[in-house]
Write a structure and sequence with these properties.
Blueprint (H helix, E strand, L loop, with lengths): L7 H11 L4 E3 H6 L1 H4 L11 H13 L3 E5 L5 E5 L1 H10 L10 E6 L6 H13 L3 E4 L2 E4 L4 H11 L5 E6 L9
Antiparallel strand pairs: 1-3, 2-3, 4-6, 4-7, 5-6
Length: 172
């Protein structure tokens, strides 16, 4: 579920993020894309077929949903997963605050699907595995991480530690 900076998918998600209620009319997206692209690096003219194809991929990934308002209007809405994907784009090591984030977990086998989902999210957020259930990153995403832990209901099996120990640099 990786979205790349500067891609058409990013432009569409940013457009939906900037709109009221995260909705935009398909025709509006096609004809007024330059006004939505403000602040992004996108400067290419958009064709209806290219946007439709990008929207289809985003819909398949669960990042947007489509609603038919009437025979004339098609509305596109950003989903919670789409909002998460946009947040993932903003995760960066550039502004490192000198703290490492370490996640230690022991999620039971009965929750294997949740455990695998949790690992995938850690990878998306640029965590590196130190051991199978110990992951580490320089990125300051503790708040997002704790929200995910709450959402997945795995608090009792996960510890999040912040450390400024310089020896952790040797691990990665």
């Amino acid at each position: 579920m990786r979205i790349y900076k500067g891609s058409l998918s990013e432009l569409i998600l940013l457009t939906l993020e900037k709109t009221v209620d995260s909705y935009v009319r398909f025709d509006d997206l096609i004809h007024n894309s330059s006004s939505y692209a403000y602040g992004s690096s996108w400067d290419k003219p958009l064709k209806k077929s290219v946007i439709a194809q990008a929207l289809r991929r985003l819909r398949q990934k669960g990042l947007v949903e489509q609603n038919q308002k009437n025979d004339q209007e098609l509305l596109i809405k950003l989903t919670t997963l789409g909002q998460d994907a946009l947040e993932d784009l903003n995760v960066s090591e550039k502004d490192w605050d000198g703290k490492w984030r370490i996640v230690i977990f022991d999620i039971p086998e009965q929750k294997r699907l949740v455990r695998n989902l949790f690992r995938r999210r850690l990878k998306n957020w640029q965590f590196k595995p130190w051991q199978r259930s110990v992951w580490i990153t320089k990125n300051d995403i503790t708040v997002k991480l704790r929200k995910l832990i709450d959402k997945l209901e795995i608090k009792e099996w996960v510890a999040v530690i912040e450390s400024s120990d310089a020896s952790l640099e040797n691990i990665l």
